[in-house]
Amino acid sequence: MGWSRYAVYWVPGGDLGEAGADWLGWDIRRGAARPGLVEAPSARRYGFHATLRAPFRLLEGVGESEARGLARRVADDLAPVSLGRLRVARLGTFLALLPEVTEGIGEVADAFVDRMEFARAPLSEAEEERRRAGGLTGRQEQLLERWGYPYVFDEFQAHLTLSGPGATDNLQAQVEAHFSHFLGGETRLTHVSLVGEGEDGLFRVIEDLPLGHDAASGDRAASA
């Protein structure tokens, strides 16, 4: 399958990943639809994930193999990090899972934004307009122009989107019940995923990338 855009996500594995796929109705890892428990078409197409390097088109002359190799090298130079406990929270008008500890995942995101920048094609005018549609601060505008995305570095906030806009209190209660098993203990980030946007507009995992050379496979399956 050809990919129109690439991104680097944290795509949780194990039971947490299954719960997220069941909730949104799209299994980004297997590229398969599920019935879904919430009506959130925008969140669904991206799958259950936290954005580390937002979707981008490859620069002309840069191929998928180069992008994959670069992403692997970045991941190899990083180490697994603790995310602490997850909690359900509102970000604006939508719901998300937020990690308690954000410093480590922020550093992971920073590395992928910085080191994969040379592979990114400039934004089109239409892409810039979409990024600005919700309104940006002066700082976010600077980041958009420099890095192609307004929510990087000091504006980065790690989150796993669980709804569309206008989430109700009743929906929040449903989210908390569905993910209750995952809110009490520590979660670790041990791998990230290079993902691609297919012709159908849905994102799929291209390759999982362990953080560091000695990331334990058990940790990747259970807590990443």
From TrEMBL:
List the InterPro entries.
Answer: DUF1045
Domain of life where this protein originates? Bacteria
Descriptive protein name: DUF1045 domain-containing protein
Could you tell me which species this protein originates from? Histidinibacterium lentulum
